[in-house]
Amino acid sequence: MSELLIIWAILVSQILLTLAMGCALYRMARGPRAQDRILGLDALYIIAMLLLVTFGIRTANTIYFEAALIIALLGFVSSIAFAKFLMRGEVIE
């Protein structure tokens, strides 16, 4: 019984995460300002990371967890670079 509940909970979470990914993509495409688009991108990489973690839990494969870690690191660095670009107009000084 508890295994079936876990499988359904993971499936529902994956469906909800894909819906949230669609909302983040909409914000990236239709954001009125650049800051809104960057926030949409931040939400998108976090959702993608969580989706990979749920795939890893569902399949019991460690490659998904490693990919989620790489997405988290690259997403953080890109967020810092975009914020610096919006503040100063250049990334590398």
Automatic annotation (TrEMBL):
<feature type="transmembrane region" description="Helical">
    <location>
        <begin position="6"/>
        <end position="26"/>
    </location>
</feature>
<comment type="similarity">
    <text>Belongs to the CPA3 antiporters (TC 2.A.63) subunit F family.</text>
</comment>
<keyword id="KW-0050">Antiport</keyword>
<keyword id="KW-1133">Transmembrane helix</keyword>
<keyword id="KW-1003">Cell membrane</keyword>
<feature type="transmembrane region" description="Helical">
    <location>
        <begin position="63"/>
        <end position="87"/>
    </location>
</feature>
<dbReference type="InterPro" id="IPR007208">
    <property type="entry name" value="MrpF/PhaF-like"/>
</dbReference>
<dbReference type="Pfam" id="PF04066">
    <property type="entry name" value="MrpF_PhaF"/>
</dbReference>
<feature type="transmembrane region" description="Helical">
    <location>
        <begin position="38"/>
        <end position="57"/>
    </location>
</feature>
<keyword id="KW-0406">Ion transport</keyword>
<keyword id="KW-0813">Transport</keyword>
<keyword id="KW-0472">Membrane</keyword>
<keyword id="KW-0812">Transmembrane</keyword>
<protein>
    <submittedName>
        <fullName>Multicomponent K+:H+ antiporter subunit F</fullName>
    </submittedName>
</protein>
